[in-house]
Design brief:
The protein contains 11 helices and 10 strands. Helices cover 48% and strands 16% of the residues.
């Protein structure tokens, strides 16, 4: 058997998922898509996992998008299946009931940038390069890029980047809010783990409801968004974690949240 296309490590309630096709710049083929889909489905119902980090193997690439060597062998129907699969996968990541951090280590093009866009937080190495380059292949972003990019960086900048297929370096990505933070390559995983640790100190039900409220309220008018927030808040009120938060504050100690 060949090497696994996806590596998974669990560390202190954090799942570190590594796209493991370094010789192919960690590009997506059907095998990797299906492996990542299965892992995300497993994590959704794994109460031990509080945060997910997605990174690429090696130091050259986070993910260079679709594997064009595979793509050229596919029929039109198979290409449609690929796009359907990757679009649904990235929506599943976006709507996962736990925060997902993209550790953008190197090149992230096409579907690689779209994967990062589907994550909640993006931390990039100083050598990162990102871009929705599909129009240079006479296609368009098909895994959510035309929708998520404008919502993150604004319509005008998204049109510029998609229409030109231009890449941006880490500094420009930070400047246009495409990423949250930039750090030296050797610090990237540590930075992601430090942020994950901070998230793990919070209440897991609260995080799940906050993510739900942000994702769904953002797409509506303010009054509907406030109603979504209100309903999400109600979910946290009868939890043991809320009472633990109050007790720990009163007793001047760190809370121990159990997701209950």
């Amino acid at each position: 058997m060949g090497e696994k296309v996806l590596l998974v490590e669990e560390k202190d309630n954090v799942s570190i998922i590594t796209l493991n096709r370094p010789k192919m710049m960690n590009s997506f083929n059907f095998e990797m898509l299906n492996a990542l889909k299965d892992e995300i489905d497993n994590i959704r119902f794994n109460g031990n996992i509080r945060v997910v980090i997605i990174k690429g193997a090696g130091d050259r690439a986070f993910c260079a998008g679709a594997d064009l060597k595979e793509r050229i062998t596919l029929s039109e129907d198979e290409v449609k299946k690929f796009i359907f699969t990757i679009r649904n996968l990235f929506s599943s990541i976006e709507n996962l009931n736990k925060p997902v951090i993209a550790a953008v280590n190197g090149v992230a093009l096409g579907g690689g940038t779209e994967l990062a866009l589907a994550c909640d937080i993006r931390i990039a190495a100083e050598n990162a390069s990102m871009g929705l380059t599909e129009t240079r292949l006479a296609i368009i972003p098909g895994a959510g890029g035309t929708q998520r990019m404008p919502r993150l960086v604004g319509k005008g900048k998204a049109k510029e980047l998609i229409f030109t297929g231009r890449r941006v370096n880490a500094d420009e990505a930070l400047d246009i809010s495409l990423v949250n933070k930039v750090c030296p390559p050797e610090r990237l995983l540590d930075e992601c783990l430090e942020m994950a640790k901070m998230i793990c100190e919070t209440g897991p039900i609260a995080i799940e409801q906050a993510k739900y409220a942000i994702n769904n309220g953002f797409e509506t008018d303010i009054n509907t968004g406030l109603a979504i927030e209100s309903n999400a808040y109600w979910v946290t009120i009868p939890t043991e974690d809320r009472l633990e938060g109050l007790a720990s504050f009163r007793e001047k100690r760190k809370p121990v949240y159990k997701g209950k």
